[in-house]
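re the bet — no i am not wrong, look at it urself. input seq straight from the record:
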Amino acid sequence: MIFSVGNAFIHFATLGVLLIILFNVRAKYTAIGRTEMLFFFYLFIGLTVSSLVVDCGVTPPSSSSYAYFVAVQMGLAGSCCISLLYNGLLCFQFWEDGSRRSMWILRLVSIGWFIVNFFIAIFTFKNWGTGLSTTNTTGLFVVGYVLNAFILFVYVVSQVALVLFALDSYWPLGAICLGVFFFVAGQVLMYVFSEKICEGATHYIDGVFFATVCNTFTVMMIYKFWDMITTDDLEFSVATVENGVRSFGLEDEKRNSTFFS
């Protein structure tokens, strides 16, 4: 049974937005980091589904399975963070994107960080560890919040450096700033003003609702930033066939990118 209808609605809306983003990313066949970015959005879909289960009361807090669903949610959140950082570093072209090696590294790193976040969360919730319990949540806070926040911080710094030193246009900085603003606003609304929002809205919505909205806008800005800094090879676009673009020379046939132009 779903209790928080407002939260459920915004989660379903987020899934719709993610499906549109996936379609657009898949359409950029030769864009740098396309496969890795698709993997990130698949992870975020999984995070959204798990959040739908946890936030909307599909599994009530009193049930024995609730702790496991929350642990999965935290694990997927960590995987999204590390996957996003990987995509950010990939933009510097230190290694070939889309290769089997690149994808396996991304999968292993994401799975490894998921396992770390999941087990620290479940050990804390179930009081299974001597240093991890519901009365000692320091480990959970450090891994789930401090380290993941640091990972996101490194991602933002790397992308700002990419725009400043490798691109010809500073417009992508706008997407970065908006993404950071929405993310920070969502965290503040959820952890600082959630109770006041809940009381003011007579318990129909709370800070989770607005945090989910802000997170959705954050992901949209992540996609927009990636879309702005990558271009697609016109040779593979439908518009090329319809408009009869001239034949490309040897240099033009190479996969086009705004990186290090």
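see?? The chain has nine helices and no strands. told u. also Residues 5-243 form a domain with the Rhopdopsin 7-helix transmembrane proteins fold (CATH 1.20.1070.10). so pay up
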